[in-house]
Structure formats: structure tokens, C-alpha cells
Amino acid sequence: MARVLVTGGCGFIGANFVLHLLRTRKDVEVVNLDKLTYAGNLGNLAEAEGHARYRFVRGDIADAGLVEGLLAEGVEAIVNFAAETHVDRSIQDATPFLQANVLGVHTLLRAALRRGGVRFVQVGTDEVYGTLGPSGRFTEESPLLPNNPYAATKAAADGLVRAFHRTHGLDAVITRCTNNYGPFQFPEKAIPLFIGNALEDRPIPVYGDGLHVRDWLYVEDHCRAIEAVWRGGRAGEVYNVGGGNELPNVELARLILRELGKPESLIQFVKDRPGHDRRYALDSARLRAELGWTPAVTLREGIPMTVRWYREHGDWLRQVRSGAYRDYYRQHYHERHGLKA
Ligand SMILES: NC(=O)c1ccc[n+]([C@@H]2O[C@H](COP(=O)([O-])OP(=O)(O)OC[C@H]3O[C@@H](n4cnc5c(N)ncnc54)[C@H](O)[C@@H]3O)[C@@H](O)[C@H]2O)c1
After folding, report:
1. Given CB 3.0 to 4.6 Å as the disulfide criterion, which of 90, 131, 157, 329 pairs with 149?
2. Tens-digit pLDDT profile for residues 228-274
3. Is 62 helix (H, G, I), strand (E, B) or coil?
4. Can you give the CATH number for the domain in which 58 is found?
């Protein structure tokens, strides 16, 4: 039985990854370390609760003693999702981003190195490359030119991971993925925000002229890529994970409105985000060639699936949008485990 420490498993991609592992692998035990920031939602993992191969630990990746204690239980790999992730919040105040995305990652790396025999998988983002013109794609050799504080902290994290490999010989790999979408995404991010607002006939805010291009990847495809890199990626290597589904934001909004049967008049252009990258696109030839990964879900398939999921999980969406999801920990988890809130 392989034990993996998943950090940030109560967030969007982390929760999908934990469920993916529990559903598809009988030989993997998952310990989920999550601080439960505003973006962490234990309700995302209701299906995993009570599972014999799953354990949740509330805590901070920057807590060295806690991380070392968990590694001492015998962990084969750390897959690090834990991060502050919302660009707009990083523009307001980057301090929590430095704490989680840089100092937190450093704590994990140091603990993995001290322990020995632990593979470190850093879940990174294409935002570290900065912005593209109308053509071309980023490869793993493209320079890191982050344009917003979130991306800058993720680039710093990638640098630390690389340094721990090159300097100390730590067995570490990095993935850099494009924009994800799918179940359990916090509704401050574009797709669940658009769906949630449209369902209530409220305006859909689109930044600037709406022509910023993003490359979308269905979250399950990302989970498969991370698993492939964890198991087969070459130590010290970076793997781009691209969807090959480029779309301007305004087209994405139109696609979602069509799927919901709502009018395009709900689209509202709002003041552009400062430092807003114009276009992201990734070349994932390395991941495809070395590890045989290909995305299974196109945007034309994934958007209807995602719209259906949010429609069918109206309670989830309402609880997150109202903030009630934060009571889940107190009400359910503490009761279940006989703990004080
Ligand atoms: N969402 C995307 O489109 C995307 C694309 C590429 C890469 N990524 C990367 O994937 C990872 C996960 O992204 P997401 O969208 O699921 O994020 P998210 O914001 O939905 O979830 C982040 C999770 O990390 C936890 N967390 C934050 N700080 C922590 C800390 N100090 N200690 C322990 N837990 C902490 C939060 O409680 C939350 O559960 C991030 O590292 C992000 O940079 C995301």
C-alpha cells in the first residue's frame, strides 16, 4: 500500500484528485493535510469521509513539526496542491500568497529532504510563464516571467523545488497546468461564477474586452496528468499540462449561457484586471511523449458536464456562495469525531 500526503486536498483540484485516487486505486492510502482557508471545503470530500484509505488532518503546510510527524508515519510521496490561488486576492495583498506558496512549499521540501525517500510533486501553473501574443505556445524551457503576485509566488515555488533537486538531490517533479474547470471549483473563479450568476439571472462579469484567451482543461484530465507525473516523471523535470482548448473569455461566457438557455445580454464587460495576461497556451508534448498522457474531455463536452454538475449540486453552490460551507467543519466533522469546535 502506497501512502501519499496530499496537501490542499479540500480545494478544487485537490478534492478531485483525492476522489480520483480513492475511486481508481486500491493500493493507495491518502492523508489530506489542509488548513481549511476560505477555499478549503470539507464538504467537497464528503464521499471520502469514513473511507478506510483516507484521513484528513487540519493544518498548515508551513508547520514543520506537523509535516515532519506525518512524513514519519511513512509517506511515499507528497503531492502539493496547497496554495493561495486567486489572482485578484493577490493583487489586494500578496502576503498570504508568500506564506503558503513560498514558505509553505519550502517547509514541505525541507521536511521531505530530512525524511528521505519521499517524492515531491509540485502542482504548478502556466501563469509562471507570463503572457503570449496571438501565436506560439509555452514549452517547459520558456522563461518564467510572472505578471501578477500569485504567479510570482508560484514561480518562486518552482524555483525552490528545482533548487532542492539540483542542490540537495531531492526527488522532485513539477507540473504546470492551464486553467482547470469542473466540479467543486470555488465560485470566485470564472466558470462557476458565470454559471452561478447566470442561474440567478445576474450579470456575468467579463474583464476588459473579453478577448483574453485561456486554454481550458477538465479537472479529471489534470488529475490523471498529476498521477502520471508522480509515478513516471523524471526527477527534476517539469511537465506542462495543456488542454488544447483555447477560447477567448467572452466566447466562454457565451458557451455557458447557451448551455443554460440564458440570454447573452447577461454579459457585462467590467474594468480590466491590472497586469492581466492576454493569452496562455501550453505545449504538452513532453507529457504526451514520455508518459502517454492525453486529455480525454474536450471543452465542448466538458462545459455541458460542468454546467449539469453545478445545476445538480445547487445546495453545494448556495452553501459556498453564502459562506455556510464554513460551518461544515464545525457541525459535521467535530460532531463525528467528538471534538470541540
Ligand atoms: N485552478 C486552476 O485552474 C489551476 C491551474 C493550474 C495550477 N493550479 C494549482 O493547483 C493547486 C490547487 O488549485 P485549486 O484551484 O484547487 O486551489 P483552491 O484555492 O481551490 O484550493 C487550495 C486549497 O489549499 C488549502 N491551503 C491553502 N493554504 C494552505 C496551507 N498553508 N496549508 C494547507 N492547506 C492550505 C486551502 O484550504 C484549499 O483547500 C494550486 O497550487 C494552484 O496554483 C490551479
Report:
1. 90
2. 999 999 999 999 999 999 999 999 999 999 999 999 999 999 999 99
3. coil
4. 3.40.50.720
